[in-house]
Amino acid sequence: MKKNYIYLTMAFAFAFILGLKASPTYLGEQPKQGWSYDFETAKADKLGDRPNHYDLKLNGLAWSMYAVRRTGGANDFANGKYAARIYGSKMSMKEMPYMAMTEDKEGGIGTVEFVYRAYGEHTASQVAWCVQVSEDKGEHWETIGQPFTPTAEVQNFHAKANVETGRIRIVRTDYAVFDFAAASGYDAAFNLDDISITDCEAEAPDRPSIIANNDLLAFGEVNKGETKKLTLNITYKNLKDDISLTLSGESAPQTFGISTELISVSQAEGTGEVEVSFTPNSLGAHQAVLKLQSGETTTEVRLTGTAVRKAGEFTYSGGEGTKESPYLIGTAGDIEDLSLAVDTETDYAGKYFKLTKDIDMSGVSNMKPIGNNFGTDGSSLRAFSGTFDGDNHTISRLAMTFTGKNNLGVALFGILKDAKVMNLTLTDCHFEADAIVASIASVLVSSVLDNCHASENVTVKARLKPYAGGIATSAFLSPSSITDCTSRASVEAADVAAGGILGLNSIQGTTISRCINYGSVHTDGNFAGGIVGYVETGSLNIDDCLNAGDIKAQSYAGGLLGMGLQGASINLRNSYNIGRVEATD
Questions:
Q1: How far apart are the first and last CA of the chain?
Q2: Please, are residues 259 and 275 in contact by the beta-carbon 8 Å criterion?
Q3: Do 158 and 296 belong to one domain?
Q4: Do 178 and 233 fall within a single domain?
Q5: 197 phi and psi angles, rounded to 5 deg
Q6: 134, 221, 382, 496 - which has most CB atoms within 10 Å?
């Protein structure tokens, strides 16, 4: 028994000595350690329950993160009690959402893994994310694995970096162009749990990579219709397949172009270059994504540029201005250009315009009316004299608010002379000035409004003085016609003459036919009418019209007509009022 005990003791000692000789610690080296974190100790590690900025250590490794919080709510996925919730956007954002290591991991980075799922309340509003690695302390980043968009199903991310020195981060794939300052709420959140990073595997084959010298090509401002070119340099390693290049995004490929769609790979390592062009045909900001892919290895480059108008040139989004080839209006910038052109250079007499799609004007700050009499002495009269076809599209979120006696005659079109505007709807718009205000057009001179509409969320307000109309303010000098138009706008005038369709007529021969007013019409003074507020002189024909809006004036109001002065001629045919009328006279 004693002899067996001695042999057993010697065997253990021998094994221990062999173990020491094989251990890196015994040789004076530090053992490489993998790293993992399951967020169960996140509260103790100072990750808060609000999506703020945190600099902290998770299991001994330093991280910085923004728009990230600790969570374990009913709508969250967590393998255990807690997970991280990363928001794609949040209220009052001050930087890009991210989760990033701020120190290199000892032992390098081999394989990165974690599980993720869309946050329960945001499953329908997710964005794409990517994992990136940096070998130079965060100066440059390279995407590893495939970008991912969280869904309602729990999924696993797995990608190999295999770098001896490095750190990783998780960011939105559009980090180069995402306008975080414009974010208006908490959205696109997903849950992340059980993140692990193995050590670099020296014996493993080198990781394939495609590295662009820039992950953002910013073209800056380029004149519409002109071309600017930039060169992108590519370095690749350990590839077997050729590199394909594709463009995606709303502005590709009509605005951005590439000189080649394929970079041939003849050796495992090499370089290449591609010339990227930006040729904008519409004003405003443009962006696209250039994807480079070889097998399963991909990288993406964001492309941005802003088209501006060259001084003295108004090319719009295409067209020649003829009836057969009208100028094409496809952006808010085109409408701004039209306003500027009429204000400074031309009335477009005999020219044609056509709206090509619905346009949101929210990004435009207080544009002048298209045609106006803004100025100190009335000598700066500018009128639009062309034909504008809305092609049954909508212009929305246009806000025009002006003050002062020199800024009167406010509407989308300020002054129309020998012009025609048709097939156009305004929605969610506000028009306001001291006097003479409408939605579609303020002053009509020998012009036509046909099939034009102001929706219920349009407001028209003459703040201090007379004349406001749901469609047009006033008809002067030569007769005009308004046909097949409707207004649901709220119309208000501080003084005389507020009309659901037209505020004032003072010319012989104006016609309003097949028009309906549904909106409220109100004046603190006199003369409110469901179709026309006031006929000062001349003749007016109102045919086949209906008022269904509430009409209110301090005195003198009518379901169809507020007031016609003695000597004015008003012909009413087949026209009806079913709205409430309130006035003292």
A1: 127
A2: yes
A3: no
A4: no
A5: -135, 120
A6: 496
Q: Are 90 and 52 in contact (CB under 8 A)?
A: no
* Amino acid 312: pLDDT: 67
- 544 and 440 within one domain: yes
Last residue of a domain, one of 150, 167, 197: 197
Q: Evaluate whether 49 touches 73 at the Cβ level (below 8 Å).
A: no
Give pLDDT tens digits for 384-429.
999 999 999 999 999 999 988 888 889 999 999 999 999 999 999 9
- Tell me which residue range forms the domain holding 113: 35-197
550, 529 contact by CB (below 8 A): no
Residue 160 sits in the same domain as residue 76: yes
pLDDT at 30: 37
Please indicate, yes or no, whether residues 227 and 361 belong to a single structural domain of this protein.
Answer: no
Residue type, 483: T
In terms of Cα–Cα distance, which of 168, 103, 164, 107 is closest to 133? Answer: 168
CATH code for the domain in which residue 472 is found = 2.160.20.110
89-145 pLDDT per residue, tens: 999 999 999 999 999 999 999 999 999 999 999 999 999 999 999 999 998 888 888
Closest of 336, 413, 407 to residue 373, by C-alpha: 407
CATH of residue 222: 2.60.40.10
Query: How many C-beta atoms lie closer than 10 Å to residue 113's C-beta?
Result: 17
3-state secondary structure of 330: coil
490 and 569 in a single domain? The answer is: yes
Beta pairing class for 516-517 and 486-487: parallel
Looking at the structure, do residues 526 and 385 belong to the same domain, yes or no? yes
Residue pointed to by tokens 């993140």 = 195
* Residues 282, 331: Cα–Cα separation, whole Å: 7
Helix, strand, or coil here: 84?
Answer: strand
327 in a domain, yes or no? no
| Gap between the Cα atoms of 477 and 472, Å rounded | 15
Q: Are 373 and 414 in contact (CB under 8 A)?
A: yes
Residue 340 phi/psi, 5° resolution?
A: -65, -40
The count of structural domains within the chain is 3
The answer to whether residue 313 sits within a structural domain is no
Confirm if 88 and 124 have CB atoms less than 8 A apart.
Answer: no
List the one residue out of 537, 454, 460, 444 whose CA is nearest residue 493. Answer: 460
Longest distance between any two alpha carbons in the chain, whole Å: 137
User: How far is the C-alpha of 119 from the C-alpha of 122, rounded, in Å?
Assistant: 5
Residue 82: which CATH number? 2.60.120.200
The number of angstroms, rounded, from the C-alpha of 144 to the middle of its chain's C-alpha atoms is 29
The pLDDT value recorded for residue 204 is: 52
Q: Is the dihedral of CA 109, 111, 117, 123 positive or negative?
A: positive
Residue 13 in domain: no
pLDDT cut 90: percent of the chain above it:
64
Query: Rounded mean pLDDT of 305-309?
Result: 85
Q: Which residues pair with 148 in a beta bridge?
A: 129
Which two structure tokens, joined as six digits, stand for 28?
A: 């004076």
Please provide the DSSP assignment of 199-262 as one string. PP-TTSPPPPEEEES-SEEEEEEEETT--EEEEEEEEEES--SPEEEEEESTTTTTTEEES-SE
Residue 209 has what pLDDT? Answer: 85
509: closest CA among 477, 541, 534?
A: 541
Query: Considering the domain boundaries, does residue 469 fall inside one?
Result: yes
Is the domain of 192 the same as that of 213?
A: no
Give the span between the Cα atoms of 581 and 579, in whole angstroms.
Answer: 6
